[in-house]
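Q: What structure does this chain adopt?
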Amino acid sequence: MTTPEPAGAARPDAALPTDHERRLHPLSWLFVLVSSIGRFLVPLLVLVVLGGRSEDNWQLAAAGAGVAALVAGAVWRYFTWRYRIGSDSLFVRSGLLERSLRQIPFSRIHDVAVHQTLLHRLFDVAEVRLESASGDKPEARMQVLRLDEALALEQLIRRGGEIAVDPPVSHAGPAGQGELLLRLPTPEVIRLGLISNRGMVLVAGAFALAWQVAPEAGMAEAMTRYGRQAFGYAGSFAPGWTGAVMGALGMLVLALAVLRLLSVLLALVQYHDFQLAGHGRRLTVSRGLFTRRRNSVPRRRIQAWTLVESFTHRLFGRRSLAVDTAVVGQGSEERGLSELAPVATPDRCDELVRQLLPQADWPPGGWRGLHRLAWLRLSLGGTVFALVLAAAAGWRFGAWGLAGLLWIPWSAFVARQHARRAGFCVDAQLVAVREGWWSRHWRFAEIGKLQALQLRQGPLDRWLGMASVWFDTAGARSASAPLRIRYVDVQEARALMARLGPEVARRPLRW
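A:
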């Protein structure tokens, strides 16, 4: 199955002649200015507000001078920034007094990201970011190009990178088309919103902002007033404790409904028309309702895989498939491609893995369990927490505080369930780990993508005769669970190190 490129796509050879320097779009200075004002918006607003209260209005003059400087910088960048397409590289020239010429080989470009906000779409332009595996900013950020030029540049770099590194491969369709691997219709995106907790993040941020901006006494008074109104309304139906319980349950149900509604709205904004397509040896993801985003990375840049199945995933019969690539995020800016399937059925996720890793056997059949006392090690954290909780509560509430010790049998139960389900599998191609009980995940990576191995043992591990093996891969995201085989028999852990160490050293690292 093939999917056409967005409207405006053109043949790269026709739209971007090589060995010819090109400018950005004539309106690029406007988008650079908008981006710059966004970064300096808070101090500019402070100057404007203070200037309105001052008699001499020097703050307004300072704000005007700041905006004029930003305009001059944006226009200066337009007249001094050029790019040129070479046979195997992209050349970027910038500066006038201090000139810079940057050469970026196609084979070193790991991710081609094309972004379109509503303002971009109004003028039929796009921003292009070229990412590599290192550095805290993109190799090149083109603000902005005509949409057809941006898409042509994406295709040219995509094919140039393939030719420079890999032998030519047949594509699923004519130029500008690719194999559609996954597409999320609107019902699936709504299901993703119901599964996720994105609304909680938005509400927590809004609540924290309101608490900081509004007077503390005013916030507390408002919460007290609305709470009394809710409980009073419930008490009109059933007085006493029954009304209080009904009011609390009603507020809880209303809060959950609002959170899920916000999660659905955020999912529709972020994942509208989500498409995963294969273009030869590259994968391309496009998504977004207001801001359209396209990320394209070579398949070989994928370093590790993660399948996630939370409790709400299981309610809807779905999972999520994410990857770690050699392009990593820095700070608050999301870089690279991370989600191959934000939501899909378990069979569809497994099918995607088999399609993108044809040499691997997935799902593996020979899962091995943990050490027989692994549950004891897993319950240690919950036990310590319960003891601290009981001690603090006992000091404050007396004998009633000992109720915190009830957390110990619960943590032991959870640890037993976790240890019963957890396991690992190591074959000729993959290292795979499964963990979790209430919220489950599978982490796996090709042996050729492993960079380092580490054997870990704490004092309790040594006493119980167990150890853990940790694996390092490039581009591991902080939000991902580490790839590790935890709490197996120490002899088995050492055997894994002896087996995988020479294997990792023998295989070339391609990333």
